[in-house]
Design a protein that fits this description.
It is built from 9 helices and no strands. The chain is mainly α.
Length: 255
Amino acid sequence: MDSLFLLQFACFIFMLVNAFFVALSHLHVRWENKRYERSRWMIVVALIGLAIQYAVQMVFGFRAADDSLGAVINILVYTPCFSLISLGIYNIETTRSNLRKMILMCSGIYAAIIVVFCVGISFHHSLYIREGLYLMLSLCCVSVIYCIYMIIQEMIRRKNMLETMAATDLLPYVRYSRASVIILWLAVLAMPVAIFSTTLLYIVGPAVLLALLFFNLTFIALGNSYIPTEELLDKEENIQLSGGGESRKTFTAIV
């Protein structure tokens, strides 16, 4: 049994255990919040998707056979899973209309990746799609950078809104926001290395897993100590839809 298989098996178990913990933490929240629960299940599905990807890699040996072959499978799975995690974060931060826009954008980028993959297979008649792999990676990085940009923008906007409209302790929110941004940036920096170099994967992989563990623990803690106030976001959305004519009313966020 080689070291690559052991790393993939460790990642497989790690993703399943984290998905189980995130899902199980639903039983321990102080109050149920629909927005937070939607985010929870987005993240759970993403973690299960990553676990399935590692299982596929172990069974069929794509990465063991060739780095570029494993990279194709990685991009096909990492992109939607990363988008789901990003949407889970963004869902807590933003209004429903903004969330729909981000879903459409992420779906469009992933559709482009699928098109490039299918065209590459039709030209080369195999999973070794050569130049198509680099185009797929470029689109994947565009998706990651777009998600990070949108989350940071919304994080700053909502933090300012909460400070203006609510006189509450924002520490749980700030911790969660920082954890979200850290894990996303680590994913961006590690993506090209983890996809194209199996050797460097042994160094980068554990670091990303630790960052993901930190994010999951912070997300669970957020549900236990701080409840994002849907009324604030719904109020903000109504103001946007009415063209800003309605004045904002100050009310207290729930913690």
